Amino acid sequence: MSGLPRPLRVGMVGYAFMGAAHSQAWRTAPRFFDLPMAPAMAAVAGRDPARVAEAAEKLGWQSAETDWRRLIERDDIDLVDICSPGDTHEEIAIAALEAGKHVLCEKPLANSVAEAERMTAAADAAASRGVFAMCGFSYRRTPALSLAKRLVDEGALGPLRHVRAQYLQDWLTDENAPLTWRLDKSKSGSGSLGDIGAHVIDAAQWISGQNITGVSALLETFVKERPVGGDFVGLGGHGGAEGPKGAVTVDDAAVFSARFDGGARSAGGAGPSGPIGVFEATRFALGRKNAMRLELNGSKASLAFDFEDMNSLWFYDAADEPNAGFRKIQVTEPEHPYTGHWWPVGHGLGYEHAFTHQAVDLIEAIAAGKQPAPSFADALQVQRVLEAVEASAADESRWTKVEGA
Amino acid sequence: MSGLPRPLRVGMVGYAFMGAAHSQAWRTAPRFFDLPMAPAMAAVAGRDPARVAEAAEKLGWQSAETDWRRLIERDDIDLVDICSPGDTHEEIAIAALEAGKHVLCEKPLANSVAEAERMTAAADAAASRGVFAMCGFSYRRTPALSLAKRLVDEGALGPLRHVRAQYLQDWLTDENAPLTWRLDKSKSGSGSLGDIGAHVIDAAQWISGQNITGVSALLETFVKERPVGGDFVGLGGHGGAEGPKGAVTVDDAAVFSARFDGGARSAGGAGPSGPIGVFEATRFALGRKNAMRLELNGSKASLAFDFEDMNSLWFYDAADEPNAGFRKIQVTEPEHPYTGHWWPVGHGLGYEHAFTHQAVDLIEAIAAGKQPAPSFADALQVQRVLEAVEASAADESRWTKVEGA
Amino acid sequence: MSGLPRPLRVGMVGYAFMGAAHSQAWRTAPRFFDLPMAPAMAAVAGRDPARVAEAAEKLGWQSAETDWRRLIERDDIDLVDICSPGDTHEEIAIAALEAGKHVLCEKPLANSVAEAERMTAAADAAASRGVFAMCGFSYRRTPALSLAKRLVDEGALGPLRHVRAQYLQDWLTDENAPLTWRLDKSKSGSGSLGDIGAHVIDAAQWISGQNITGVSALLETFVKERPVGGDFVGLGGHGGAEGPKGAVTVDDAAVFSARFDGGARSAGGAGPSGPIGVFEATRFALGRKNAMRLELNGSKASLAFDFEDMNSLWFYDAADEPNAGFRKIQVTEPEHPYTGHWWPVGHGLGYEHAFTHQAVDLIEAIAAGKQPAPSFADALQVQRVLEAVEASAADESRWTKVEGA
Amino acid sequence: MSGLPRPLRVGMVGYAFMGAAHSQAWRTAPRFFDLPMAPAMAAVAGRDPARVAEAAEKLGWQSAETDWRRLIERDDIDLVDICSPGDTHEEIAIAALEAGKHVLCEKPLANSVAEAERMTAAADAAASRGVFAMCGFSYRRTPALSLAKRLVDEGALGPLRHVRAQYLQDWLTDENAPLTWRLDKSKSGSGSLGDIGAHVIDAAQWISGQNITGVSALLETFVKERPVGGDFVGLGGHGGAEGPKGAVTVDDAAVFSARFDGGARSAGGAGPSGPIGVFEATRFALGRKNAMRLELNGSKASLAFDFEDMNSLWFYDAADEPNAGFRKIQVTEPEHPYTGHWWPVGHGLGYEHAFTHQAVDLIEAIAAGKQPAPSFADALQVQRVLEAVEASAADESRWTKVEGA
User: Fold this and answer.
1) Closest chain A residue to B300 measured between Cα atoms?
2) Strand partners, D63
3) Nearest chain D Cα to B324, which residue?
4) Between 20 and 30 A from B351 (CA), which of A185, A344, B48, D131?
5) Quick one: which of A100, A6, A83 has its CA closest to A44?
6) D171 close to C (CB below 8 A)
């Protein structure tokens, strides 16, 4: 490498779970990948002065701000990384893009389609000026899912018949788990649907190369009221059964069937009709901790993935018949996406590595002056699916077209 | 044992896949279980004289008949075992019951709710005379599923939140697999829905102790025409791509969401609402050969089963937390349902053993003068779910109540 | 089928666990396979008149004898099936062969090499007269292991490097499990070594196509005394901790390393040296119920099997790299050994099916006038490995050549 | 935390695979754990000026040195982290300790027992002056193995019967994989035995709380010569089959049986005899990429682990019988070792996290003035087992006592 790479000075908004993951990514990316720009952890923003200062030190940011607007005003910030709750995304992202800052925005992109549309318009406008926006569907960068995408793109699966997508967690099973911001619709937009369902919607559309065109859905809130306060442990925790309770205003579980557009985008080829999808997102699947699962059945091959065994991709190739079987590919080979930059084969990666890969891909796109993926438009499409799901659930599960499909 | 047990003389209609399984069951049951009546394989009926004679010899039946009506006329037949296609069930079963013969009828009970209702009325009338009818949902007698039922009945799971039920096969993935009677609606009633979906509907209702009250459904026929004739291999085969084709008149895949009745019947206790169900049946899940899968998530414990590993039941008990995990119970212990009659622990059983257990339970019920389960009424309830699924699919997936629920 | 096949009239000695398995095999074989001879269950022999009569009725034998010598005298017996303990094998087998009866003898062939040598000599002499002997290493006929053998024979694995063989059970873990004949060296010859270790030795040699040439071994008896009497449950049970105890005279666990002969017999090709083997047999592996496991690592492919998931064979093919992985082949395809005679794909078989396949292969060999496998000579080779293991264990684990290797 | 923690200034020797892992650990530890001292990445040492400078920049070290002696001379280095090959460990470690630097030394501690003894003597002397040495058996800090240790210490397993330990890799399966320093005995000390076998020896002794007292062993070098040079990929690669070859002077595979001391150290209780161990380390287990596996069978419970699924621990508790089964514990709960500092449940960790945990534990021990574990004495014990294995293999596998046992 001749000369030092240009810096990419990052300002991050929010410093909770996602903030910690993004911080680790910015810090780690240049240590394992050769990057065309050097990320610098310039500033982190949060409202509480003491807590944001502590977070800056802990997470390794050079400075702290108590108003995200300061990040946008500062000349020494090139990219704004939005890790705050969904109800803040629109304002921050649009302001940042208009100020010429690149944007990485956590998912779901917004709490409504209208917000997402305005954000996408702002992103499109910015892109024409070489300022780029990306949405943080980080699971795309899990090596096993990246390999799944590659196999589909290569045509290995042939026309798709089925997409089976689940995101199963169990941290609300306890009826006295406390009421958190994630259960407040005004903050989070939706419950399991937007929080985890959005991940599998994005992954299913991205890997299949097809958009969802319509859905039939059911939403359920099993526990209508929960204790205010309580001991938080992980995402959930244990509330006091005796104390005051507040209303849960989001879904505990979301299930829907879907049709895909048949895939002009798919290298597998466009059959007369696309696959049928079955989606499920829940926080009540006792024993399933982070079971983000995808299964695609094509005419030539099938794929299956479960994040609880995140370094493996299961692949069934009909060409192997009669001695075919789902093979457990350990996605740790030098030839596999991302993994050659890390450890020898069989030495698995963890959850946060996908964030590092996301940072790498974003830096490379910005340096090359190209639109990173997923774009805000990609995320808007997910948002439209979420909206269709809610509309169907509110209308006796009736089949509901996804806007624009 | 002092004295010989009374005989139970069986006449079987049909001798294909199901006929072979039932024959093995009647032959094997008295060798491993102490039975109150001694099953005798008296006669098998089929239309083709040469083929039914050959089947009688091969499968071990003492005589052959070319008309099922002869079985009903014969004095030396106590029970009629119906293994012929669904469009024949009503006539045979009602005639047999009216003639005072006990009946074991393969599933699905009938090709329509109207048929099933008439059959159930006949069964109820016969029961009052000590003549009993049972429907052959044999999977109930797979030891792992019987253990699942026992655990739910004991209250181990607590209130249920989710039922996840799949029956995935792949024998129609090849677009040139031949057109068989299973793809002809006039013979089979429906496709994957009635053939394999019915199994998971019955299993889910039986194990949960709850009925499905409503559904939202989608049916799909991926391949609309298939070769007439061709080489049959297993259930599917390879047709000639060049020859004449005929229309597929049944579904290739069926998916639906469901609600359960909350379970007055469930020992787990009746919450204000029952669990949400997600069901899928397909013959296009490439690589899944006989993946009859059930997962129940309760508030205290969860269960998971996959027939492709049929001797295991996975059980997650929240009481084990923080060192909880799905345990792979090998359902081969002497204390487990049925298994103590067979081999030492860890020496697994196979597919046909459930048929033997079904024969055992039926014989014991008849000898005791008690109604065997599943009754025709139980099977009628499954039929009503199938009907609701078809109605919803025909009405834009709109939520559809199950009749009688 | 024109004309009736010749009968093969069987007389069985012993009617416990193995007797029940063999009975089911003789009864079932003609129902699923087209056989050149028709097995008839002519007589069963045991010492206790009442119990053998009851067993005959229960297991379906036409007559009972209280002395095995009567089976040999009877003209209407063509084959003697020896299911009694190992200390009786030599006398019965030699007498039967000399009387012109074919013999199927349970494993281990004998309790000593000397006995096995005399039996092999008798078998060789009989074979020259068209009278055949076979040893019941039934696991060879488990379809997944038969497929493993086929793959090795086809050269799919290339030169072998490692054989990993375990047979893990846990029914002696309880220190008060009762003293049974299996723990009495005078009856059983050895403990885990001969009972279950013999199975994996045979399987490893047969599948690899190579003989073991030398071993280094360790034997251990963890619990030296056990209660006399007690409640038997399965193979083990629960004795009274308070009552009298007797000495355990066999090994509880056996472990040894081995070298193979490099495989002139192996289609995989003979490298300059054969693979290294690691063997373990124990009844103290708590939680492992019947984990009969084999793993072969070749230069081109690897295989893995565990009887606790008996319908699957795991196959890793280096030709699939970099997207290789162990594939879980469901050994239920029509093209797989034996399975096409049973159920559709994915409808697994159970433990006893291997006995049926053994009966089929034996009947076909006899009808064709060919030596069935495994021969007594094959079983003698296993016996010599057992002897070398015991010799090495008694001599500070020193490397010990297998006789004749 | 009031005030800034004291720094712990680290100087690292070597910057290859292990150097990258250690660098990531020093960088990451303070971001997720509250540490009593603040690690500073002061300097990295290597012989090639250009390459070490590049490594310093890439891996994030503040300065570079071309002689490890400079690290020892520098006043601003508190700890020397030795990541160079085994033949360099003794000289560096002893010099560092004598200079008052704490030492973290990669495993295996040395290439001979004599070296390890001198290092241990130096460590003991240093410890009396508050200067500490630790050996980098990093797998101990994999959360699942830490939980295994905790369960054994709590007595959950009862007296142990079996230890089954494998470390299976496949990167030498290709006969033309190139000759690297890992295949040169003068550099690496041994092959699979010391490289990966040492890991499972340490883990087995540490978790069981028992030392190995004797062994019977077999070593094998399947491929005696390999190409000099070639394309390195991961640990292995593809050499030119045509070019010059050099001798492989280490073992390709090592297998041995072992006895343990019965465990005065074990909370599980000291039976009259300890468990039997079966160990295997190989680089020829085609398809096994990093299968570092342990299974412990006790009288009350069993444990199983495979690094290829590193976030899970399988646990069988006999108290669950008859519904017992190996439970797949996802070791990601807040209550589990280390994991509460990272992500929500079910969001797994990767290979390098164990190095971060190692750094954390080392920093805490140094700050507390306590001996970190594993000490050099612990590593010396592993070295003595390695020596006994080599001695036994050279003496016809004869049983060989471990020195000091």
Assistant:
1) A286
2) D43
3) D329
4) B48
5) A83
6) no
- Looking at chain A, which residue has its C-alpha nearest residue D16? A343
**Minimum distance, in Å, between the CA of residue D230 and any CA atom of chain B:** 39
Mean of the per-residue pLDDT values for chain B? 94
Interface test with D, best of A1, A22, A199, A343 (most D CBs within 10 A): A343
Helix H segments across A81-167? 89-98, 113-127, 143-153
Q: Is the peptide bond before D159 cis (omega within 30 degrees of 0)?
A: no
Burial code (b: 16+ CB inside 10 Å, e: under 16) for B297-328 equals bbbbbbbbbbbbbbbbbbbbbbebeebbbbbb
Q: CB under 8 Å to C233, separation ≥6 — which residues? A: B334
* Closest residue on chain B to C34 (Cα): B58
**Residue boundaries of the structural domains of chain B:** 6-139, 157-299+380-393
* Nearest CB neighbour to A344, from listed D234, D344, D346: D234
Topology agreement, domain D6-139 and domain D142-375+380-393: no
Residue C332 in contact with residue A337, Cβ under 8 Å? no
- Identify all chain C residues contacting B169, using CB atoms and an 8 Å cutoff: 346
- Per-window interface: D 96-155 vs C, CB < 8 A: none
Q: How far apart are the first and last CA of chain A?
A: 46
Q: In this complex, which of D27, D31, D233 lies closest to A334 when CB atoms are compared?
A: D233
CATH topology of domain D142-375+380-393: Dihydrodipicolinate Reductase; domain 2 (3.30.360)
Q: Tell me whether C352 touches chain B (CB under 8 Å).
A: yes
**Interface list for A 295-324 with C (CB within 8 A):** 312, 314-316, 320-324
Partners of residue A332 in chain D, C-beta under 8 Å = 289-290
B325 and chain C in contact, CB less than 8 A: no
- Chain D, residues 262-291, CB within 8 A of chain C, namely 273, 276, 278, 280, 282, 284-288
Does residue A300 register a pLDDT over 80?
yes
By CB atoms closer than 10 A (0-12, 13-18, 19+), residue C373 is middle
C57 is written with which tokens?
A: 């009725």
Interface of B with D in 33-52 (CB under 8 A): none
What is the CATH superfamily name and number for domain C157-299+381-394?
Dihydrodipicolinate Reductase; domain 2 (3.30.360.10)
Q: Is B325 on the interface with D (CB under 8 A)?
A: yes
Neighbouring chains of C at 3+ CB pairs under 8 Å are A, B, D
Total residue count of chain A as it appears in this document: 405
Q: Which fold has domain D6-139?
A: Rossmann fold (3.40.50)
Mean per-residue pLDDT for A19-43? 98
Question: Distance, in angstroms, between A245 CA and closest chain D CA?
Answer: 25
Positive or negative: CA dihedral A148, A150, A155, A156: negative
pLDDT of residue B216: 98
Query: A200-248, pLDDT tens digit by residue?
Result: 999 999 999 999 999 999 999 999 999 987 665 566 666 666 789 999 9
Q: Quick check: A270 pLDDT over 90?
A: no
Question: Does A265 have pLDDT greater than 80?
Answer: no
The model's pLDDT over A78-132, given as tens digits with 9 standing for 90+, comes to 999 999 999 999 999 999 999 999 999 999 999 999 999 999 999 999 999 999 9
How close does chain B come to D258, measured CA to CA in Å?
Answer: 28
Instruction: Quote ipTM for the complex.
Output: 0.96
- The per-residue DSSP string of A25-75 comes to HHHHHHHHS--SEEEEEEEEE-S-HHHHHHHHHHHT-SEEESSHHHHHH-T
Q: Mean pLDDT throughout C140-149?
A: 98
Identify the architecture of domain A157-299+380-393 in CATH.
2-Layer Sandwich (3.30)
Which residues in chain D show pLDDT less than 70?
A: 1-4, 230-241, 263-272
Q: For chain B, what percentages of helix, strand and coil (3-state, to nearest 5) are there?
A: 35, 25, 40
